[in-house]
Design goal:
alpha/beta; about 25% helix; 4 helices; 5 strands
Length: about 150
């Protein structure tokens, strides 16, 4: 029996909205990534949860904490390196196995600092929630994914 917390528990622990029944991301991600849990993965998450009302796609929800999902990913992928990026420079931080950097989804070319092409196992776009920008970011960051 696995005694490690699942993603839903970790998202809830750190204050991410991904644990809620509203969209069930925790369950979906758990199904997608459980086989990779103990591997030395490299993951990038776009959008780390600005609570600034002047930033597009901000997270003004009560109790939400910027960087919450990054901390959950770090604990879930115990051998992984987690990168996060956001347009809100005020919420960028560095912790054990977490590095964050500035990233503007509306301003190509899309570059992931200090990350090589063909080196990422997972890229999650949870930023602007706008199809046009999501599609452009996908095309721009696809070369970073391992093939």
């Amino acid at each position: 029996m696995n005694s490690q917390p699942n993603l839903i528990e970790l998202f809830k622990k750190y204050g991410s909205d991904k644990h809620s029944n509203h969209h069930n991301y925790g369950f979906k991600y758990e199904n997608l990534f459980s086989s990779m849990r103990d591997k030395p993965i490299v993951m990038v998450e776009i959008g780390i949860g600005s609570i600034n009302p002047n930033i597009p796609s901000n997270m003004p929800h009560s109790g939400y904490k910027p960087g919450a999902s990054l901390r959950a990913w770090r604990d879930y992928f115990s051998n992984g390196l987690i990168y996060g990026c956001d347009i809100d420079r005020d919420i960028l931080f560095t912790e054990d196995r977490i590095k964050t950097f500035f990233f503007d989804q509306t301003n190509p070319p899309y570059v992931l600092p200090n990350i090589s092409y063909n080196s990422c196992d997972i890229i999650v776009d949870d930023g602007l929630h706008n199809f046009h920008y999501n599609w452009e970011v996908f095309k721009g960051l696809y070369p970073y994914l391992k093939t």
